[in-house]
Amino acid sequence: MALNTPDFDQERDWLEQLLTGQIPLGRAMALRIERLDSSGIVLAAPLAPNVNDKGTAFGGALVSLMILAGWSLPRLALRRAGLSAELVIGRCEVRFIKPVAGAFRAECDWPPAAEVDDFTGRLSATGRARLELAPRIVSIDPCEVAATLQARYAGLGKPPLEARRD
Q1: Cis? peptide before 142, omega within 30° of 0
Q2: pLDDT tens string 19-75
Q3: Alpha helix locations (H) across the chain?
Q4: What is the DSSP letter of 21?
Q5: Fewest CB atoms within 10 A around its CB: which of 2, 30, 155, 157?
Q6: Residue 166 lies in a domain
């Protein structure tokens, strides 16, 4: 399955609608997809709707944008594989490095194709799979990593009939 010549423009439109149309937080954060390609995804957000009482980006907004950036890649992998499943974050560890005083973006790289194939293959076979990703927040001015996230995303679906015991 992996990354076989997808239509990134069509996927970007579909995913941005999902992130801002079906996830109210994405709309409230004013997020947008800045880049989606074979290397990964970049979600961008302005400071104004995500500001805290100190005039910097709210930590929850930084974490939320990283979680959504990471969530987007397995969501696309499921769509490309024609699989229907719930996708949740099962575990995450965040590290705040620097305050963010302006617009920011969350970047997440695609894992190796073999890991994506394993994720969709396991989900198809057993109804459960996980994928480890490492999104990060990059401030725009100055351009530097401001936060990191180590995350495990879980796909939860129904296994094929022959694998069920109900």
Answers
A1: yes
A2: 999 999 999 999 999 999 999 999 999 999 999 999 999 999 999 999 999 999 999
A3: 8-17, 24-28, 59-81, 113-126
A4: I
A5: 30
A6: no
- Cβ neighbours of 7 (radius 10 Å): 9
Does 163 map to a domain?
no
pTM score of the predicted model: 0.90
Which residue, 62, 66, 129, is CA-closest to 99?
A: 62
Q: Any idea what DSSP says for residue 50? A: G
**Number of domains the chain contains:** 1
Rounded to 5 degrees, φ, ψ at 82 are 70, 30
For 95-123, the three-class secondary structure string (H helix, E strand, C coil) is EECCCCCCCEEEEEECCCHHHHHHHHHHH
Which CATH number goes with the domain that contains 118?
3.10.129.10
Q: What is the pLDDT of residues 72-100, one digit of tens each?
A: 999 999 999 999 999 999 999 999 999 99
Separation of alpha carbons 166 and 158, rounded Å: 11
What tokens appear for 131 in the block? Answer: 């994928």
- Copy the structure tokens of residue 103: 């617009």
Contact 70, 136 (CB under 8 A): no
